[in-house]
Design brief:
- The protein is of the alpha+beta class and about 375 residues long.
- The chain is built from ten helices and 17 strands.
- The radius of gyration is 21 Å and the shape is globular.
Length: about 375
């Protein structure tokens, strides 16, 4: 995301466990005439399933989607239009229709969808229809252009010799070997004060920096995913579980940070358990209301974009989610867009939910790890 857990963009990307709700509020759309034809008849069992590399799609009726009529679907529409900036081949014609439409109500959005799309339940190749949803977010971190005071932890740009040195240095080697430090000298994008801030930026794959420049001026910029060192990603949460420091149900990002504060002498041990290093590039934040670009190449929408396994669900596909709020039994059922991926996001019924940026998003994402059911909406023809 950006889990980039690593999200290409990011990692994108999933990453640590799942980190993020803030519901996007897209542009307000004025009511306008829409196609008022009644929805077609429900799909029957005679409609053929569709096969993907890592998933099977089973046709159902819209009435089978839990909470379908209760979602604020009009809030999803801007995410659709962003996805239509780089649509899958099957969506080119429908995206042209979407650009012309201006549905001004939830019912109008649902009518538009039901006239053009078919719902399919996503299952594993073995037939399992339940999976896992985690969350991710875009961190917001204080940074300095130059090393000063407490701000001594570098965020690196992609090194010049990355292409010729594969795999590149591990995280521990970057921190301790003179050769690795020489390779990265002069490639510092910015400096942060806390190694955990650097780690979470790399886990999420991108982030926002409150950056103080050399002349003392301040600006808000994005540290966007530019590449990584080609080392395997290892979850620091999993490492703490294996060390007996946390139980699986405790391994959230807030708990990981709390453990690090209480065990400062083992901080490097924690950090170095994940050998992957992510490199960044600076991007202007021209519209603070937009998230980072996901693997589809379009900006993510808080509360309406997810990361998926692209071998199960193609980018640019509308997805209906049926899960719960983090650490709660309240239903979380809504229409989202598959617009990102992550190294930990694999399998058929698997999603990483983009919560947005800042502390509220971090809190929600860090606690999200629960059962998921999902459906895709696919063009009828």
């Amino acid at each position: 995301m950006l889990k980039f857990l690593e999200r290409r963009s990011a990692w994108t990307a999933g990453a640590i466990l799942g980190v993020l709700a803030a519901c996007a509020s897209g542009p307000v759309m004025a009511p306008a005439p829409v196609d008022t034809r009644p929805p077609p008849a429900p799909v029957t069992a005679s409609a053929p399933p569709l096969q993907r590399a890592n998933a099977r799609w089973v046709p159902v009726s819209f009435t089978d989607l839990p909470g379908w009529d209760a979602d604020r679907s009009v809030e999803w529409w801007p995410a659709l239009l962003r996805g239509c900036e780089r649509p899958p081949l099957e969506w080119v014609r429908l995206c042209a229709d979407a650009r012309k439409a201006t549905p001004g109500s939830d019912a109008a959005v649902r009518a538009w969808l039901q006239q053009r799309l078919l719902p399919y339940r996503v299952e594993s190749l073995e037939g399992a229809s339940e999976g896992l949803v985690t969350g991710y977010f875009e961190p917001l971190v204080e940074a300095r252009r130059n090393a000063q005071g407490a701000f001594r932890v570098p965020l690196y740009q992609q090194p010049a010799d990355l292409a010729t040195r594969r795999p590149f240095w591990t995280r521990q080697q970057v921190d301790t070997l003179a050769a690795a430090q020489t390779s990265l000298r002069g490639r510092e994008l910015a400096f942060v004060a806390d190694p955990l801030d650097s780690l979470i930026l790399q886990i999420q794959g991108s982030g926002r920096l409150h950056l103080t420049d050399a002349d003392g001026s301040r600006k808000l910029v994005r540290a966007a995913f530019a590449g990584h060192n080609d080392q395997p990603y290892k979850s620091v949460g999993r490492w703490l579980i294996e060390q007996g420091e946390l139980k699986p149900e405790q391994a959230s990002w807030p708990a990981i940070k709390a453990w690090a504060r209480m065990n400062p002498k083992r901080l490097n041990e924690l950090l170095w358990s994940n050998p992957r290093v992510v490199f960044f590039r600076e991007e202007p934040l021209s519209d603070p209301a937009l998230g980072p670009r996901g693997a589809q190449g379009v900006p993510l929408t808080p509360g309406r974009s997810i990361a998926v396994d692209a071998q199960s669900v193609p980018y640019g596909t509308p997805v209906w989610l049926d899960t719960t709020e983090p650490l709660a039994s309240s239903p979380l059922r809504r229409l989202v867009m598959a617009q990102d991926t992550g190294s930990a996001i694999t399998g058929a019924v698997r999603a990483d939910y983009f919560w947005g940026w800042g502390e509220p998003a971090e809190q929600q994402a860090g606690r999200m790890k629960q059962v998921l059911r999902m459906w895709v909406l696919w063009p009828r023809n």
